[in-house]
Amino acid sequence: MKLEDLNGTRIATSFAGVLDRYLKEHGIDARVIHLDGAVESSIRLGVADAVADVVSTGTTLRNAGLELFGDPILESEAIVIRQKGAEDDPQIEQMLRRLRGVLVARDYVMMDYDVRAERLDAAVALTPGMEGPTVSPLHREGWVAVRAMVPRRSAQQIMDDLWELGARAILVTDIYACRL
Predict the structure, then answer these.
(1) Mean pLDDT of 85-105
(2) pLDDT surpassing 80 at residue 1
């Protein structure tokens, strides 16, 4: 679909002003329908022919049977600003720690696995974690359980390497927030 194909359509969005301005700048004559939340369901409900929504990966839209097209309407970023020389505010520092924790969590996953104790040093070399992995003895003699944060982009390769080393019950779990 091309941008000009939107002429005469109904487009649902939570950002009516931004979308209306964008369409006018591009000479598109479409009806903007303002909705609050769950915009992706508007097509299935017959409320709209297309949606303009905030996306990072587009997964939610694809899960609704939709596909992304065209260039972004707007790219944005969040920044924190404070007055130069302002005193530290514990509440602001807490908020910044929380934000940093969410951002770090996007780049890491938690990996758990079981490995024979004699292969622990080689396994830990693959999964050093942040301060070091958590290692716990298992009920099964000669085996330990290991837990460590690993870079998300390397997780599949690390799992393969651990498997080759003899590790089993390898699990990867998303991290939603952390403090490091």
Answers:
(1) 91
(2) no
pTM of the model: 0.61
What is the average pLDDT score of the chain? 92
Structural Rg of the chain based on CA atoms: 24
DSSP string, 37-79: S-GGGTTTTTS-SEEE---SS-HHHHHTT----SS-S------
As a whole number of angstroms, the distance between CA 58 and CA 151 comes to 22
Long-range contacts of 149-152 (CB under 8 A, 24+ apart): 149/108, 149/109, 149/110, 149/111, 149/175, 149/178, 150/108, 150/109, 150/110, 150/111, 151/107, 151/108, 152/106, 152/107, 152/108, 152/109
| CATH code for residues 3-63 | 3.40.190.10
- The domain locations on the chain are 3-63, 104-174
Residue 112 confidence (pLDDT): 98
Residues 154 and 152: their CA atoms lie apart, in Å, by 5
| Structure-model confidence comparison of residues 40 and 122, the more confident one | 122
Position 84, amino acid: K
**Residues listed for the chain:** 180
**Cα(109)–Cα(159) distance, rounded to whole angstroms?**
12
Cα(70)–Cα(18) distance, integer angstroms? 16
As its CATH architecture, domain 104-174 has 2-Layer Sandwich (3.30)
